[in-house]
Amino acid sequence: MLKKYTDHYSEIWKSCSEHFPGFSKRYNSVEKRQKEEVLDQFLKSVKSFRKQRIRNKLFQSDDSKVFILKTRGFLRDGLDFDNDQLELMFSDDMVALTKEFVQQAREFDAELSFPDIFQACRNVWIMNGLQFILGLKMELTPSILAYSLLYPYTDNMIDDPEISGFEKMIFSSRFRDRLSGIKLEPENKTERAIYRLVEMIENQYSRVNYPEVFESLLGIHEAQTNSLKLIYEKLTETEILKICIEKGSASVLTDGFLVAGKLSESQQYFLSGFGAYLQLLDDIQDVEEDSQAGLKTVFSGGIVENSLDSRLNKTYWFGEKVMENLDFFDGQHIDLFKSLMRKSMDLFIIEAIAQNPETYSRKYIANVEECSPFHFSYIRKRKEQFAPYNGFLLTAIEEIAADNFRKKKPELVSNE
Question: Which residues lie closer than 8 Å to 239 by C-beta, 6 or more apart?
Answer without folding.
Answer: 229
